[in-house]
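Ligand: fe (ii) ion. Inputs:
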Amino acid sequence: MNNLFDEIQDFPINILPKDGVTEYYGKVFSDAECEKYYQYLFNQIPWENDEAVIFGKLIYTKRKVAWFGEKEFEYTYSNRTKYAKLWTPELLALKQKCEEVSCETYNSCLLNLYHDGSEGMAYHSDGEKDLKKHGAIASLTFGAERKFSFKHKVSKERIDISLENGSLLVMKGTTQENWLHRLPPTTKVKSPRVNLTFRTIEE
Ligand SMILES: O=C(O)CCC(=O)C(=O)O
Ligand SMILES: [Fe+2]
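Predicted complex:
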């Protein structure tokens, strides 16, 4: 049965019980926009295999990545330096949508392409030194719906959420200091998911 609280409860909701703010806005694009952006992102982004150095050995992950921004930002990752490509009109439109909905600003974006559920991302927090401290990170999903998990760094409490096609999740405040997040692999998902995380690089 609905009570008054359910009726006035609206997006966004903070999905974390403490020590951070992460707002889930649900689907913020129409089905037609989702299809248009998915096709664009999947086919037009110059995807590259991600590189990592593990035990001194350079390996390439199956997941693909791309890095865009308002300037050719330099970033160092596993001891390799890369430069951001400049916004395309489509990425600029997606950035503006995130800015409008979240009332925050962003100047760069890391894109991830997971071909199916066998690809994911291990627990981490996005606290790189070049990122604005306590800056918001806006995460868009296009394609397959996937589970996303948070784990509290001290209490180990876990929060799971399902990120649907066309949805927006915003991590802000002290989320990165106190919580890890991951995209767990799953055998259930057979189709690709594109994720965009808009961030603020501080110069
Ligand atoms: O794919 C996702 O939803 C998360 C990606 C992520 O955490 C990251 O790029 O830092
Ligand atoms: Fe992350």
